[in-house]
Design a protein that fits this description.
This protein has 5 helices and 2 strands. The chain is mostly helical. It folds into 2 domains: 29 residues, no CATH class; 60 residues. A hairpin with a 5-residue loop joins strand 1 and strand 2. Helix 2 crosses helix 3.
Length: 100
Amino acid sequence: MGIQACCDDRGACILQGLIMNKVLKLSSIVDTDLFYKEIDKLVKNHNLSYMDAVIHYCEKTGMEIETAAQLVKGNFRMKSHLREEGETLNMIERAGRLPL
């Protein structure tokens, strides 16, 4: 399936599917669990924070940060790691927790 060009009623050509094809290719290659495993491997092997590991992974693979954000949203473990880091760095408000 390639990118198709079509023209609207005014004759202006529009490339359809360019963005969707790119998103679909990335999402079919990388699911949320595989993405989490790759990020977790970077964290452990290179002593990175989860935030830094996500950015490093995106730079290394050419993945858009927005695509990575969608993968993070779909994985509870990844979200909890990032939330914990954000709270520790005072980037987000701390969630109420029961004292243990």
